[in-house]
Automatic annotation (TrEMBL), chain A:
The keyword Calcium does not apply. Keywords: Amino-acid transport, Signal, Transport. This is ABC transporter substrate-binding protein. The keyword S-adenosyl-L-methionine does not apply. Residues 1-20 form the signal peptide. It comes from Agromyces archimandritae.
From TrEMBL, chain B:
The chain crosses the membrane at residues 6-28, 57-79, 91-112, 132-159, 190-213, 225-253, 265-285. This is Branched-chain amino acid ABC transporter permease. The lineage of its organism: Bacteria, Bacillati, Actinomycetota, Actinomycetes, Micrococcales. Keywords: Amino-acid transport, Cell membrane, Membrane, Transmembrane, Transmembrane helix, Transport. InterPro entries: ABC_transp_permease, BCAA_transport_permease.
Amino acid sequence: MSAKRLTAIAGGSILLLALAACSSDGGDGGGGGELVGSGTGAECTIEAAVPIGAAFSLTGAAAQYGESQKNALELAADELNATGGVTYELAIEDDETDPKQAIQLFDGFVADGTSIVLGPTLSNTAKQADPVAQDGGLPVLGISNTAGGITEIGDYIFRDSLTEEAVIPQTVAAATEKYGLKNVVVMYSNDDAFTESGYQAFADALESEGVEVAETITFSKADTDFRALLDKAKGHNPDAIVVSALVEAAVPLVTQARELGIEQPIIGGNGFNAPALIEGAGDAAEGVVVGAAWNSASDNEQNLAFIDAYTEKFGKAPDQFAAQAYAGLQIIDAAVRANCSGERDDIKDGLTGISDVPTVLGDVSLDENRDAVHEALVQIVEGGKFAILS
Amino acid sequence: MQLFVDGIFLGSIYALFAIGFTLVFGILDRLNLAHAAVFSAGALVGIDIVTRFGLSIWIAIPLVFVLGAILGVLIERIAFRPLAGRHDSHFAGLISSIALGTIILAILQALYGPDTHRFPADAFPSVRIDFFGATFSLLQLIILVISITLMVVLTWLVAKSKLGRGMRTIAENPHAAAVLGLNVGRISSLTFAISSALGAVAGVLFTLNVNAASLGTGHAVELKALAIIIVGGLGSLPGALIGGLILGLAEVFAVNTVGSSWRDMVAFALLFLVLIIRPQGIFGARKVREV
């Protein structure tokens, strides 16, 4: 093919794209202040339905999470719409677990006057798509992004999902109290950004709790045989072993630790907070301690009602992704009612003021960094499931 | 003592991989880098057989052995045989086997996804044995026994049997072998079949041992196995076993004396040390090649 023809084709495609962009609805769906209502809080009434966008991974690698999020969001919208005053109109789109697709969706949401967007499902996708919303002045509420740096993208980016940095100190404090920890061995994979930041959080938390670290042992995320490392750990006779690893490494590590006769508690980061740990490690997983943003056993009244409603509607129990999605709309509802307005900047303003809003996750606040603050649940594996450490 | 035992058992896994690897590399003089993919395939298909069809591990292992043999024949046919006439067939085969290994992994990913899989908890009896204050599992002992047995059987096969003589003749001079009336294609296929069958079974045993298998499982072991066969001496099966054990022990002791971050560095530095002392490897004979 000649260079000339290539240029022609390239030029043609750019023209087509430009045409497509022009023909898409550039108006703002708010239309003349219908989104501003009267009254405040519970009395707030808004004429038009508030348009809520969502970009979830309904297909691709993270599809199982996206499905939970979609279900829970629909349930929350139905319930909030039934209470009256303010109604929400959902547009749930599929980001295909692909940042490129998410960027396109966000472009669409910025253009079509959506008031606020929930998602995307994965932190990696959020890092690439959120700047689009930030530039377009569209508020975003992350409901499952736990990686560092997400909310630093800008002042329109919020999240209700607890980060590792928020959960780990609570996990360490609870375990220290329960087991009287004085001396532990820390193990982490030092070639992965996620587990590395988890390790930092553990190290800081252990220091502030006054727990001695006998030794810090590193491994690679691709490792599967940990016996030599565990022998070394066992030699220190620690009160517990603290591990920051992905679930792929967590399963063999826990299995082999029990095999070598290490009976002490194993305290894990978010990588351990997965049903796959219990399925994969079986009996060996007993006594593993891990913090989480949500647990089905938490007995706050809202949570019990949510679990019942979700199970009845979808025929299976909700997971943490569902709970955080449901809480996401509860928080947005509080932010909308605060100024009794569905306009973008009014919602953003309402979100900055979120403090102790009762949700299925407990009482949630958003701090000055727009990150979630609420009580984490410290869980322990007992009888083949995650129970609450008491 | 526990350290020593752990090192020996870790080494026996490396050796299991290296023995299959060196059979083709040392005897036929072909480096088959699809071996890691076969290792992963054996592990994942073995898990599938046990979980989906509810068969016992003792039935799964022979089935995986057969699967490995079939893969071996395919690798030889697709990645090596078409290149036989080229003057750079060694190097071209290396590249084409990497390509084929990648294809095998892509098929595995399509079948089983990228997640980590594992055998059900009760797939293998978990018997623990105490031995002079050290503890290990029955499985680890079986792996060690299998490694040693394979080494002995294969050494005999290569040295004494008709097939072994054929292999060595082909390695020396394929044209002469054909003139002598040896069926070059069949012997090559058979060598690859045995090598890959061992690789696939090694994958199953490795997975049972660590309770995790993923697409990358084979790759982690492959580089170490390469180093092992070079240290052991090219084509030397006892060398592969001893080299594997040395590496296993070096890793375990490195973790406990130098620190976990230095594990691989210490292990590979030791291998260099061996090569400096004996360039031809522990069991290697100095080969004089006429060019």
